[in-house]
Structure to design on (690 residues):
């Protein structure tokens, strides 16, 4: 980079610029500059749009179920027929026998399940049926709603707790820092998914009834809280490092000199300086959480059947993968699209907010 | 050096203790109710419940319960015959949890060691290639693929791989399911593991490739790289000897943790999808029945593995890189 021959101060630079182009120099906030960088990153904006479209589609699940598919997420249509392009087709046919008592099928003989009808059946079974004759498209949207609720909810809880712990550890240092880092180490010592499964199963036995909090076994709060808990150090650790170095800066010394208390320094001096990192982490941790929820529900320790979520929809489709591949493939594609759009947008956001940032979430 | 080793060792013991306390809290205190009743299985007799309460100390203070539980978890690993109430055993079929974990170790290790070699190799190739061609079409393509790789649920990828390569009716190129022990038939062992190896590796390849790419781009801007170029060293040699070597340092510590995590049951999803009867698979089988002891056993095993392994990595690191020692 060529350096100017004479030293320029901000004032002289403004004067020079005004003389040459007759334009005034406008002071712009870092947020505006970041937005300007982000605005030019079309790929990141498209990714954000895709994510919002997915969220919107899932939020409209009840509308779709009522007006288009005319069925609910848990309604079975085992012995019905659907008119596809003018021809009646059974939802479920083939040699399998159905036991209405246990609501299960003996699938030792192959089961023929109605495949995606796309637009040929007036909106019914657009993406096909599953092994219990339920509408895959309806379950996909309701499942997405649950997955997104858990992903975004746990990202909010996880980031809030991590930020609070990082602020406390970074500001007070000493034994507070020691306790917080040991807590991070402790969670860090478990394989993420195993700890989540352990907590998820233990909580599914009787729910949680301690400290005046009551959570029932089937509640969505269980996977939400479990995922928030196991991922705290992944956000907290890098944030703590950043705050620890900010703590030594002169402006904190100045704030202390002015007589600002710990709360004020933490929330009005330290927090605004890490808010861009928090924003990036928040975006990326939603993606991680959606993947974790999917894994957890796939194994049966997250959202419990018959409530749908993208993870347990894939688990349901796993046994029919050869005869009815759409049941497992479609929710997987939904997960990939959602997580990919969040990852791309998160990368773009990081580039825009701090082009030189090095912090990243470790998977 | 000795002081560092001793301090690190004490730290390791402390974390192990904390881990065991947390596992105890998760399994005994969180569910609430009478643990003895849960432990007695599906159709308990009253004597059975009384026996368990007595042997496990559920009528005693919490610290007694903790000590007894850890004794029983450790007992299972010791050789010899154990009484029904002396070991940690499953609610469902009363199997010795420790013995079942031991049985799963060969499959888990086969999966993880193979996958680790693949992900290290391809992760490095991907990272170097995209760093060298940074900004070009090939780099864009590779970074996009890497991003897709880390955005895929690993179990879904496994199902897709199985569907297209192992389960299609007409002569699929790969066999489906069932782990063949290495000692029985090495060729079949590898043949059966190819799909799981790649399935587990994809996420790590994408992740390591991304990390290595940005590390290398940072290092390439260092002065000593410019010096090396100015001296007229061949570009290939500069990249491999000067840039890559220094960019690999963070990868080593990343690899230590990731490798320990998959060995410690972190490969649970891959094992479940491919029905590889490993340690993670064993835990996953118990989730449906809410059979806590196997999950608890595997969680303890996994955490112990990670803690011990990361201490070992630290020792190795301190030995290799003198700058790290004083911490």
């Amino acid at each position: 980079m060529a350096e100017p021959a004479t030293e320029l101060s901000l004032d002289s630079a403004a004067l020079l610029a005004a003389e040459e182009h007759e334009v005034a120099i406008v002071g712009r906030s870092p947020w505006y500059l970041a937005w300007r960088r982000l605005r030019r990153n079309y790929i990141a904006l498209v990714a954000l749009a895709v994510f919002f479209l997915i969220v919107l589609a899932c939020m409209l699940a009840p509308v779709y179920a009522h007006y288009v598919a005319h069925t609910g997420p848990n309604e079975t249509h085992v012995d019905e027929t659907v008119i596809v392009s003018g021809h009646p087709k059974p939802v479920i046919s083939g040699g399998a026998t159905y036991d209405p008592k246990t609501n299960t099928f003996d699938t030792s003989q192959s089961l023929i399940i109605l495949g995606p009808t796309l637009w040929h059946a007036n909106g019914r079974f657009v993406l096909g049926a599953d092994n219990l004759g339920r509408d895959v498209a309806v379950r996909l949207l309701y499942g997405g709603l649950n997955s997104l609720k858990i992903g975004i909810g746990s990202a909010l809880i996880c980031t809030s707790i991590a930020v609070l712990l990082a602020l406390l550890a970074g500001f007070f240092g000493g034994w507070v820092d020691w306790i917080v880092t040991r807590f991070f180490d402790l969670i860090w010592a478990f394989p993420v998914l195993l700890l989540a499964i352990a907590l998820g199963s233990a909580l599914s036995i009787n729910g949680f009834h301690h400290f005046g909090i009551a959570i029932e076994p089937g509640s969505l709060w269980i996977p939400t809280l479990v995922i928030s808990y196991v991922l705290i150090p992944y956000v907290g650790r890098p944030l703590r490092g950043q705050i620890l170095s900010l703590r030594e800066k002169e402006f904190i010394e100045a704030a202390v000199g002015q007589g600002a208390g710990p709360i004020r320094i933490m929330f009005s001096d330290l927090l605004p300086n890490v808010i861009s990192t928090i924003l990036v982490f928040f975006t990326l941790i939603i993606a991680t959480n959606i993947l974790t929820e999917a894994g957890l529900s796939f194994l049966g320790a997250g959202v419990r059947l018959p409530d749908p979520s993208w993870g347990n929809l894939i688990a349901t489709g796993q046994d029919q993968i050869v005869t009815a591949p759409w049941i497992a493939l479609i929710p997987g594609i939904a997960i990939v699209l959602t997580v990919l759009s969040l990852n791309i947008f998160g990368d773009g956001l990081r580039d825009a907010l701090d082009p030189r940032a090095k912090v990243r979430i470790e998977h | 050096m000795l002081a560092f080793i001793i301090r690190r060792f004490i730290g390791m013991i402390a974390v192990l203790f904390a881990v065991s306390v947390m596992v105890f809290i998760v399994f005994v205190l969180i569910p609430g109710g009478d643990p003895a009743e849960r432990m007695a299985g599906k159709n308990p007799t009253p004597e059975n419940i009384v026996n368990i309460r007595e042997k496990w100390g559920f009528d005693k203070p919490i610290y007694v319960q903790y000590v007894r539980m850890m004794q029983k978890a450790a007992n299972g690993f010791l050789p010899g015959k154990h009484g029904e109430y002396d070991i940690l055993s499953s609610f469902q079929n009363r199997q010795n949890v420790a013995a079942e974990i031991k049985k799963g170790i060969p499959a888990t290790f086969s999966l993880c060691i193979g996958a680790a070699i693949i992900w290290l190799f391809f992760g490095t190739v991907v990272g170097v290639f995209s760093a060298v061609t940074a900004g070009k079409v090939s780099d864009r393509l590779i970074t996009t693929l890497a991003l897709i790789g880390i955005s895929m649920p690993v179990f879904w990828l496994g199902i897709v791989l199985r569907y297209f390569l192992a389960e299609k009716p007409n002569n699929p190129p790969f066999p489906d399911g069932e782990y063949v022990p290495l000692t029985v038939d090495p060729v079949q062992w590898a043949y059966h593991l190819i799909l799981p190896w790649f399935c587990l590796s994809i996420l790590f390849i994408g992740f390591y490739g991304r990390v290595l790419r940005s590390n290398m781009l940072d290092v390439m801007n260092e002065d000593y790289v410019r010096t090396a170029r100015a001296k007229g060293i061949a570009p290939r040699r500069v990249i491999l000897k000067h840039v890559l070597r220094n960019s690999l340092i963070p990868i080593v510590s990343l690899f230590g943790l990731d490798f320990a995590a998959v060995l410690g049951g972190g490969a649970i999803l891959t094992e479940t999808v491919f029905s590889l009867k490993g340690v993670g698979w064993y835990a996953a089988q118990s989730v449906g029945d809410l059979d806590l002891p196997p999950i608890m056993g595997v969680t303890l095993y996994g955490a112990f593995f990670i803690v011990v392994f990361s201490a070992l990595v630290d020792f190795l690191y301190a030995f290799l890189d003198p700058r790290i020692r004083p911490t």
